[in-house]
User: What shape does this take?
Amino acid sequence: MGERTIIPFGPQHPVLPEPLHLDLILEDEKVVGAVPSIGFVHRGLEKLVEKRDYHEMMYVIERVCGICSFIHGQGYVQTIEEIMKIEIPDRAKYLRTIWAELSRTHSHLLWLGLMADAYGFESLFMHCWRVRERILDIFEETTGGRVIFSVCKVGGLWKDIDNDTLKRIISELKIIEDELKPLTDVFIKDFSVQKRTRGIGVLTYQEAIDLGAAGPTLRGSGVALDMRKLGYAAYGELDFEPIVEKDGDCYARTLVRIREIYQSLDLIRQCISKIPDGEIEVKVRGNPNGEYLSRIEQARGQVIYYAKANGTKYLDRFRVRTPTFANIAPLLKMLPGSELADVPLLALTIDPCISCTER
Amino acid sequence: MAFNVIGKTIMKSLFGKPATAMYPIIKNEFYPNTRGNIENAIEQCNFCGLCSRRCPTGAIEVSKPKRKWEIDRTRCIVCNFCVHVCAKKSLSTQRHYTAPMTDKAKRIYTLYGEAEKKDA
Amino acid sequence: MAEQTYNPVTSGEIIDRAKRYVQEGYRLTQIHCTKTSTEMFIIYTFEKLDLTCENLKMHVQVGDTVPSISGIFPAAFLYENETHDLYGVNFSDMAVDFKGTFYETSVKQAFSMTGADNNE
Assistant: This one.
């Protein structure tokens, strides 16, 4: 047994753009334990619901995170609509699904780039982000913003996408898919990439369930749990199955995300072929009263929103439980036994978004 | 397992056109929907103050007696909520972004309405 | 979506209830605390792999000590530390106890005050 050393990892680290701090307990080069501490960017956004009315709050919630911004907004308005018993028009549901799936694609592409960066494959990183740029362009064209969209509102949407643009999006998706294929092949087939990802940070099926893992981390361990199966928005009318990989290592988690990108592109095509014409919003009257806990699927995993309203225009409490928070416990399970050099990679495979986690 | 799977992509980008544009020479084209910055057609504004009350960040200040409409460009998050709530439809979102500034005082953008018109 | 129920639970029963959920194949999804001007409670959410979900609601006060369920659901320690740091509810026998250093906020137990308390 070697001597034990404690190495602080983060919050500033060249690989992780997120302020995650881990105290790594090492024996020689092997990690034997890790203690996380977060709270570096705790902004108390949840507390702001007491001062902003529930319409304005949508814009604040969307800014919890810069990557899953649309899905945060969607989750928030969905929770409020559930409390107020508002049924939004079908077209709005489909449009929300399209934007949510585009968000998922762009988040996964971003993650693939960062993953390549984590094992030093800089050119792959840039190629992934080049493809991602096309999705951001679709966003800017349809919503007006590249990362913060501000199109959701309680009772529907602010903006519609006309059918010509929808057609153009389909042809754009074809280009994205063609450009993506050679890049994802690198993640799947390349020898040196597999050297860094295969068999590293294994999380077994039972551990993933017990530790409350979420999203690709969970599905990479063989658990077919996808909140989209609840059928919120238009997901109930679309044909898809949760993507599952058995191995539970870094490679499996990468594969889940790659296959989810293609699945998302397929879901967008399904949405565009099925989208009905009609209104995109309903009138909202009165103030919410009651409580609701909704679960939806973000790019990073299951996210939980809980809102408690008291009949005034200010909510009593709004709670966001982000997937990264749920994935910290599995990360702590993966780390012991790994090499120090693999720690950034492992921290990255849960797709950490600490700003999200701390709100 | 295979070696050098990315080779083809590298060759393509080696001989292809760059993915980025030479920025100051070639300017990015914005879409009609792009949310750049908030403008106020002051002659239509009735200084009701609805935009300042509904602004999530409190960037807008309106004073009815002074007939003044003021926005702090650095606080504004261009969420478009003021444009949606404006009863007179005098607010609009422009396609271009706020230009960079070297002087902090310039972040505040003030417009005055014509005072005499109302009295007349 | 279906109506949601929040089954009431007391701090004495929580360990037994959690054990029963483990046997039925549930996993812990989240724990969070809510404080309004009139009440304060902790909600435990459990879900099964077939997407069914159950909620438990436990009424507490600031400073109360609640038995930790992190011995049964290992993931609980994060949520319990969070609740402890932001709301000042103590948990006994946590699997990993950060002793108030999980969230290092400048104001201790920042969320245990509601807007109404601040105005007083």
In short: The two ends of chain A are 41 Å apart (CA to CA). The longest helix of chain A spans residues 90-118. The mean pLDDT of chain A is 84. Residues 54-358 of chain A form a domain with the Cytochrome-c3 Hydrogenase; chain B fold (CATH 1.10.645.10).
